[in-house]
Amino acid sequence: MDKILEGLVSSSHPLPLKRVIVRKVVESAEHWLDKAQCEAMFDLTTRLILEGQDPFQRQVGHQVLEAYARYHRPEFESFFNKTFVLSLLQQGYHSLDRKDVAILDYIHNGLKLIMSCPSVLDLFSLLQVEVLRMVCERPEPQLCARLSDLLTDFVQCIPKGKLSITFCQQLVRTISHFQCVSTQERELREYVSQVTKVSNLLQNIWKAEPATLLPSLQEVFASISSTDASFEPSVALASLVQHIPLQMITVLIRSLTTDPNVKDASMTQALCRMIDWLSWPLAQHVDTWVIALLKGLAAVQKFTILIDVTLLKIELVFNRLWFPLVRPGALAVLSHMLLSFQHSPEAFHLIVPHVVNLVHSFKSDGLPSSTAFLVQLTELIHCMMYHYSGFPDLYEPILEAIKDFPKPSEEKIKLILNQSAWTSQSNSLASCLSRLSGKSETGKTGLINLGNTCYMNSVIQALFMATDFRRQVLSLNLNGCNSLMKKLQHLFAFLAHTQREAYAPRIFFEASRPPWFTPRSQQDCSEYLRFLLDRLHEEEKILRVQSSHKASEILECSETSLQEVTSKAAVLTETPCTSDGEKTLIEKMFGGKLRTHICCLNCRSTSQKVEAFTDLSLAFCPSSLENMSFQDTASSPNAQDGGLMQATIPSPSEEPVVYNPTTAAFICDSVVNERTIGSPPDEFYCSENTSVPNESNKILVNKGVPQKTGGETTPSVTDLLNYFLAPEILTGDNQYYCGNCASLQNAEKTMQITEEPEYLILTLLRFSYDQKYHVRRKILDNVSLPLVLELPVKRTTSFSSLSESWSVDVDFTDISENLAKKLKPSGTDEASCTKLVPYLLSSVVVHSGISSESGHYYSYARNVTSTESSYQMCHQSEALALASSQSHLLGRDSPSAIIEQDLENKEMSKEWFLFNDSRVTFTSFQSVQKITSRFPKDTAYVLLYKKQNSTNGLSGNNPTSGLWINGDPPLQKELMDAITKDNKLYLQEQELNARARALQASSASCSFRPNGFDDNDPPGSCGPTGGGGGGGFNTVGRLVF
């Protein structure tokens, strides 16, 4: 029969005739044949299968072999034995090479035919050894895929025990050698199919024997981390990633990133090649593992690797966005790489030239998937342009291309950036490793205490959080200038863009420290603030004069001593600035005007003066001075009032004075007995002649103040402001020298704010000078801080010739001036001309301690802009003024109280920040309100309120124009370069520190107090006593924190 079949298949008969005869041969398999005839038939069919000249011969061989093996199984079992199979695998078949896929197919079919025979067990044992040998020979993808098919059907052929680990490792190495040089789609699809079969085999082995997984992954890493230039591992290794359990990510990444045997060069190679895997189609979770490794490296602070890899591969990842199959993974990796690379715009700017083409291409195809992708890409682009503003030439084409897509809110952008930075505390892998020293979750930068410099740190943070002021400072063009404003701009830029957790303001401290401030000693933050604003103001005026005199020369700014500033400023003040264009930045942002009016009670002659101010010092009403840090009363100093209010800079030895309550009470009593004062001159009435009765304008200090236990009341800032503006009777030692009477006379002094500042600075006079003990005592009374403050401003259009002069501060507490505040109607009030200007609380500087000589300063702050108010307070101010007057008459809650309550409820959910030197945490307005009740030594000292305008007339730039992308102006190149350089230096420092810690990890232990909310310990705590002032006079003076 074998001779007939052999002759038939090689004959020239028609193919249909051959098929009929073959069918007859197959049917004859049912008949009995002796062993020799069977072996001859098996030998012939094997030859036809392996060496057939055409598909027909190979097909005939398969059909006849299967038929005869089925009916003559013992004979086939004898033929298909270990020796025959071994010879096929090691020597091939006649002219057929042993690595030909036909041999594996033949063995695969033979195993199926003898599966029920006992001898198959011997073949399984043989194949367990042979498949390991074959894999070690690095077979081609096609042969390896056929081997995978065989082992998938006959798992008994897979090596067992330790050999299974070796087999998996060798199979991984084999995959790493796979290559496909063809560019034809059919061949590429076939190649992908072959690789998929091999990876599926590995997955099945890992599931059956979990012990093989970790060694296999170690082999994967060894392949992709190889630095051998002659070997480039195949991208086909990406097919294995989808089979690795995701729950192993943390363990594996931690193991890799903390292994001291893994060199940086190897890790860099491994990460680059993993990023290359993004081009492998159908592979899942590649992006997940790439991002996990990036985060793992950031967690151990190996920033050099991250920088090198990002700059090397960012364009490749961006180019993968063009391909639909790998686009989702590529976008995820691109987003993480860009958002985490926050120390420099270099990575983002590498892809900027390609963004517009990509956007236009996807917009034109109109597919829903393309639109959804562009929405995600647009959000990423907005985040990066927000973080790296200052390149309008690069960004304007992109803004035009993406203008039709939604722009994320500033809050969302900040949240995304804060969570994505390499130094972010929200890094998901950082909790498993040592704690990072990067920015806190707030995204804000702290200021390092340089030795009792908390007074400066708290003030600087409050000024930085004054959004409009910060933007104006950052927008100044100060190139080539070495002024104090330039140093402030440098400091603000670093606070906004540094990657450091806290910045050391050494240069600015040395430049801004008042000469009489002893280094490393505690000082008064209010005094420092006044000096700083005055320096900035006077310096700008001097620079203007210099630039006007040297218009053709390059402006050269140098450090100016206080004496030079004072002498030059004296000349400049002879020609005061009146228009907004002539005002300095400090005048525009913090400058207001106060009018003092004095009326002689004898002859009714009047004198008045208008002075500028940058902050108002609010004294406590004498009746409320009960909670003092010292109870011994000091004798009140005597002084004469100079007739007109003088706004002067206090000398280093001068301090605000709060006077003896007993004396104050006596004077108040004597004043109250005078029931009426003569009518004011007619020229002070408003032209409309719509003034309300005097009683409607009575100022009640304690009106509407919440009650304490025991019947006492808590004064509010509004009460202190009303007390400050209340009429004062000048009598006794404070009598006024009347030029008309040519003698000292009793007089009434009133003060009115005639021009309100953009930022209202209020200082609560908590420190009084005790002449007996020669120390400054502290008033520990709690003060209620309104979120909304309505500042009464007198709108006058004309009055007599006034002398105006600039002053840093108007301190009206000199020599008993606040002793005789008279809470009674004044004949000089102009109620009908008063406009209530709404202000929102922006920041609070808190002093912790019981003495100005020691203690600690910290600040609460939030971002408030000119147009933030959503309650249309600016449009309702006139109505509020009238309603406020009526509410005083009727004894009801004022509209401002209702608005404040509404705002307060809404502001609870907004972000407030607590700046405590290097530490910055989230907090709430409730914490700000309750600080003194919770921690009695911690009291509000300096307050910043922001005026609410319907439009901001100060800014000449439109934030929506594309120039100020994030609301803040773009940084000048000099500043950006300095920040980028420092950020790189910081990352290098972090990496060196991390490596040093890793070397000592076995013996060192680390403990830390995590950042959190401020609800546990006093925010002012700098040590075990909290607040720094707990020691009172027993502590060493001017403690260092």
From TrEMBL:
Signal peptide: none annotated. Residues 445-948 form the USP domain. GO terms for biological process: protein deubiquitination; ubiquitin-dependent protein catabolic process. Pfam families: UCH, Usp38-like_N. This is Ubiquitin carboxyl-terminal hydrolase 38 isoform X1. Coiled coil: none annotated. Keywords: Hydrolase. One of its GO terms (cellular component) is nucleus. CDD domains: Peptidase_C19H (cd02664). InterPro entries: Papain-like_cys_pep_sf (IPR038765), Peptidase_C19 (IPR050164), Peptidase_C19_UCH (IPR001394), USP (IPR028889), USP38 (IPR033840), Usp38-like_N (IPR049407), USP_CS (IPR018200). SUPFAM superfamilies: Cysteine proteinases. GO terms for molecular function: cysteine-type deubiquitinase activity. PROSITE patterns: USP_1, USP_2, USP_3.
